[in-house]
Amino acid sequence: MTGYLALSYWDLAAASIFLVLNAVFSLLLNLGLTRTLIVSALRMTVQLLLVGLILKAIFFAGSLWWTLLAAAVMSVFAGREIWARQDRRLKGLWGPGLGAGAMLIAGMLVTVYALVGQIRPDPVWAPQFALPLFGMILGNTMTGVSLGLDTLHSALAQGSRAVEAQLLLGRTKWEATRPLVRQALRSGFTPIINAMAATGVVSLPGMMTGQILSGVDPQEAVKYQLLIMFLLGGATGLGVLGATFGSVWRLTDNRHRLRLDRLSGGSA
Questions:
Q1: What DSSP character marks residue 216?
Q2: 3-class SS of residue 181
Q3: Which of 80, 140, 168, 229 lies deepest, with the highest CB count within 10 Å?
Q4: What is the pLDDT of residues 14-58, one digit of tens each?
Q5: Which of 18, 22, 9 is closest to 49 using CA atoms?
């Protein structure tokens, strides 16, 4: 079988029945999730329909500038998500800037590497390849960076006395914060590690499933999925490392003092 099976809007409506059923159960059990489920589903539907129309226009135009603009918009929204998911945030422009910058640098580096070295579309910035790849890498890196920063900032605020005690004993800021940095890095790495461990045995990833459903040979689909997972893991690791160490640098100074006054919710 080749090609793909087209879906109608009635098919999508039928698939949403189970989500509606969950909302009904939430209402009956007084879970307080009914409104959240419905709003999230509607928001997702509208966003995806709009994205589909926009991507269709960008693919048809085949313009480098439209491709870069779309990538920039994706980066802005992903950066905002990183900032919003932190209970304690860096003050000023460092708040949205550090996480977004680490994510963007890692995402761009890995995406360009893959486009130039492995996928090799013509042209290399072809939106049909560049935007979906960049989106997948950005999404996974965003999750890792937000978890890493949130864990680090909460751990520093709660364990500030222990860190300051180490600093008084003559430890450098990197030595004093090492246990908390490890905790943050583990937190940021956990989602992609779990995803890699479960891929193939527990779940078939969406990209691989989509290729198989469209008639691609399963072995070829596996190769592409392995490529994507390697790229996602690499980008996530780079982003989490950059954001975590960058935040430690910001929350300390050259005199090896802890500067929680630069953290919202921290103590001076």
A1: -
A2: helix
A3: 140
A4: 989 999 999 999 889 888 888 999 999 999 999 899 988 998 999
A5: 9
138: burial class by Cβ within 10 Å (0-12, 13-18, 19+)?
A: buried
- pLDDT confidence tier of residue 268, bands split at 50, 70 and 90: very low
CA distances from 30 to 20, 35, 141 (A): 15, 11, 35
**Domain-by-domain residue ranges, the chain?**
1-61, 63-262
Give the separation between CA 153 and CA 90, rounded to whole angstroms. 8
Cis ω on the peptide bond leading into residue 96 (within 30° of 0)?
no
pLDDT digits (tens, 9 = 90+) for 86-105: 989 999 999 999 999 999 99
> Mind listing the pLDDT tens digit for each residue in 189-213?
999 998 888 877 776 677 777 777 7
What are the φ/ψ torsions at residue 148 (nearest 5 degrees)?
Answer: -65, -45
CA atoms in the 13 A half-sphere facing the CB of 45: 12
Which of helix, strand or coil describes residue 171? coil
The pTM of the full predicted model, rounded to 2 decimals, is 0.84
